[in-house]
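Why do we bother with a discrete structure alphabet at all? Because it lets us treat a fold like text: something you can write down, compare, and reason about line by line. To make this less abstract, here is a complete entry for Dihydroorotase. Read it the way you would read a sentence in a foreign language you are learning: slowly, and without expecting to understand everything at once.
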Amino acid sequence: MKLSIHGARLIDPASGLDQISDIHIDSGRIAALGAAPAGFDAEQQIAAHGLIAAPGLVDLAVSLREPGYTRKGSIASETRAAAAGGVTSLCCPPLTKPVLDTTAVAELILDRAAAAGHARVFPIGALSKGLDGEQLAELVALRDAGCVAFANGLAPMANSRVLRRALEYAATFDLTVVFHSQDPDLAEGGLAHEGPTASFLGLPGIPETAETVALARNLLLVEQSGVRAHFSQLTSARGVEMIAAAQARGLPVTADVALYQLILTDEALAGFSSLYHVQPPLRSRSDRDALRAAVQSGVVQAIASHHQPHEADAKLAPFGATEPGISSVELLLPLALTLVEDGLLDLPTLLARLTCGPAAALRLPAGQLAAGQNADLVLFDAQAQTLAGERWLSRGGNSPFLGHCLPGAVRYTLLGGRISHQA
């Protein structure tokens, strides 16, 4: 299939490209930017005047819920929702049932993602068997089956000695470990950021030190083992300071932040809406401002949706009895564009945090708009608006942003030169 896209503003943060031009696609790859190659005869044309063409977004944290939790979502439904949000490549965590700690589960996910055909899926394998923190999973076998990194989520390792051995083993084979730094003892029973809002509402708090104590330990063990480490879901000002200091010392450390943490604060809990119940929790306005500054400076090089779809019943109980998480991948690009609208980031920098930044963090073959690369693209209208939820594709309706009018609208998402989503 040969396809030409005419008149779009091309933005490729990886190369610094920003110009109005054409894109020519052949056999799933970008054949040329600008003039068509000699003898190129496009079978399909897209008139993209007034649209922006960028690399397909790369999301490092999208729960697909399959296998095991199909009442919440499926690989087909959630990758389709991702494509609607402009995402062409995504990583799924190992929190499945059974846990993603065997090659059979990895292969099942990859086979079903390929059959759905909406986005490229890169599984993150379990660091320990069953995520129980006791025994190391078969990391090399999982890598060979397609896992790009390894994590234990918020489930703790049995102790620091077991974690040290796991990191040393991962370092031996140049594997990347993803940390979700939260001390389980300090966070136990907590529902909200420990501060004035939680005190006023009578909600048990999770202190900032739940993140920073775990982060300090993890950074020291990363330094000792030499493992490549990615710190996911940072929430605190002190946490990003620690990451910046580690990077300044030359540690192989990257980080991401959940997009909703850049928009919301713990003040959103005032109405006890379970839609704002997330783990780690929404933190203070000063924490949010520090996260924004870290994204601006590049200390945090990736913005992720941390998409967690739930069935309706999971959010209907009183606040403390509901399941945490926000369904957000479908709104990734429009929500992110609010950061441009607020003057926090310019558009190329925002796209860098959504494309080449996350791709480099986990060494994914994605996030570039250049000749020879996979034709994974998003075409969007930055001047249009999206009414969140007007055409909702995810099985999880647990999003506090539904009904909001957001900047920008995804017009086309292309995967391997094929249209996987069209508005």
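What the structure line is telling us, in plain words: Residues 298 and 353 are 8 Å apart (CA to CA). The longest strand covers residues 2-12.
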